[in-house]
Amino acid sequence: MTIIDPTDAIPAPRSGDAEKTGPLLEVRDLHVEFQTREGLVKAVNGVNYSVDSGETLAVLGESGSGKSVTAQAIMGILDMPPARIPQGEILFHGRDMLKMSGEERRKLRGARIAMIFQDALSSLNPVLSVGYQLGEMFRVHQGLSRKEAKVKAIELMDRVKIPAAAARVNDYPHQFSGGMRQRIMIAMALALEPDLIIADEPTTALDVTVQAQVMDLLAELQREYQMGLILITHDLGVVADVADKIAVMYAGRIVETAPVHELYKRPAHPYTRGLLDSIPRLDQKGQDLYAIKGLPPNLLKVPSGCAFNPRCEKAQDICRTELPPLVPVTERDGTELPGRASACHFWKETIHG
Amino acid sequence: MAELTKADEPTDATPNVSDVEVADVHSEEEAVAALDAHVDRGEPILQVRNLVKHFPLTQGIVVKRQIGAVKAVDGISFDLYQGETLGIVGESGCGKSTVAKLLMNLERATAGEIFYKGQDITRLSGRALKAVRRNIQMIFQDPYTSLNPRMTVGDIIGEPFDIHPEAAPKGDRRRKVQELLDVVGLNPEYINRYPHQFSGGQRQRIGIARGLALNPEVIICDEPVSALDVSVQAQVINLMERLQNEFNLSYIFIAHDLSIVRHISDRVGVMYLGKMAEIGTDEQIYDHPTHPYTQALLSAVPVPDPDAREHRERIILTGDVPSPANPPSGCRFRTRCWKAQDRCAEEMPLLAVPERFKGSDSPAAHESACHFAEEKDVVHAA
Q1: Which residue in the set B234, B283, B309 is minimally distant from A290, CB to CB?
Q2: Which family does it belong to (chain A) (predicted)?
């Protein structure tokens, strides 16, 4: 393999145990804002999270919660301007990617951090064959010839279980079904065996039977390559199936973090609780669905204090004036609950009451 | 049209064409009058019999030749009872939205009948059809594209009154529209606003208000909440349930989200490639499915309970849905079915209560189109 220019700018690969200290990726106090005609939209307001190799972090939130913007900031694919990152750090293998030059980031993107998008049809180029698009990764990052790249592309398509890969490598995206196209997206993300994959609603556009196939494939490949995975979704069912830990976002902030089993059993934020109560269940038929009243906030005028306060049943005066910080959640007797935190003034009442 | 459809009646039609009381109408006036008939709760209001819709595939530009047909809906039959919700589920391309269009008479059926209060609406035209349409309304999937961005909310909700002026006297319309806004939980003062000033959930409420405007008896909902956020979904579902009780509506609820369908439906039909695979009450379908496709579909749904992920048996289907232009012979599901045998390729299974469950009163005794129907609970963790 001829790897072009493996400069010292690129952090040591996974195999080298030079940097085994910090997590694979750590987002610290990230802020993202957009300058629009109506005013300044603060899409992300101080997000912190981290992912380790082989770990799956699910970022859960509704539209406008900032979950995708955070992911785009990590990938470095935000349009700047109108977007701006006024403060924050994104540490990948301990190095702040926001301080890297464009060229350095370009070398990481695709090779070390890859992204799977929601809508495979519009993310693939309709006028290029899938083999060409898959091979592009090898041609650009590794300087392979077209012929070599095509062989690699066929291997990749086999990897993601596309039947008759050799025969289909010259087909165009429209000749594939939705599930197959999503497999091609996954293959593309996997091409250079990245350390981290960000999947933004990877199965939302797919049918349930195909969704199960694709999620299984993703989980299997993640195990095989020991990749970190950030799964961005609004589907609480998918999260329960694959995640190790969860970060719940609301109006640009993380309102709760927890290991997956804990979150579903004992949510520590009223928003999480409301979300869990408002989904209908397949295995039981309840009466009226619980519905969180009101609408997600307009990011141009986020309510003061806790952004969730106008929709919250537990809201008190303090919620309208004081922004609750994300604080660690403990048992009643003060025993620590590792990985758990909640941004609610009344988390004690929510989790224990 | 009528002569034509008789000719290509499908030979494989499901056999439960029975007991439809065809209204004895001779003129348009009588037809219109028959629509005012009262249907008791629990009586069938809509009866679909062997409904077929084939979209022709043609070749050539000047001289068009038909080279085949996409068999979007291929002989399905079901009843909708007054006051109930019938859920229709299936993967994309199974024909569920085509069924919705056929019921609305937006597409002409290739063959088969749809009886609304005993009248075959596939053969109606003119004034009688207009009268039927007043009673069957639709709520669409995408609240962003189903509302005209250049019309105010008042115009959108009031438009049905332009087409059916008898429903509301002219001077009364504004008040009626405001009432409707209030019913669906929107501020009546928003009457002069435009759709872009509303969020997705609010837009869907506008769509619902428009569907309610003419006081219909049947509402066909085609994926009404799939485009909405989770917390807003619950609001809209609750609203639809409340309106059903308040206005005594019957719903056909088409969706791909099986959890929501279970929540809202009294009965559920599962479609696969233009055919009904299984139909029964929500308990029969979800807790006692007998068709392998239903079982696979249910087992694939992610359950929001991380503890279940180790115990739950999952049936992962291989491959994709075959093309409806060239469906497999015999049972359409056989290419993806783990139970398939030679018989499945030769003989099309009929939608009926399976032989082995006949006469039993177990919940497994419901209509299922499989030669090897067998009960299997896939939803509840073992």
Answers
A1: B234
A2: Belongs to the ABC transporter superfamily.
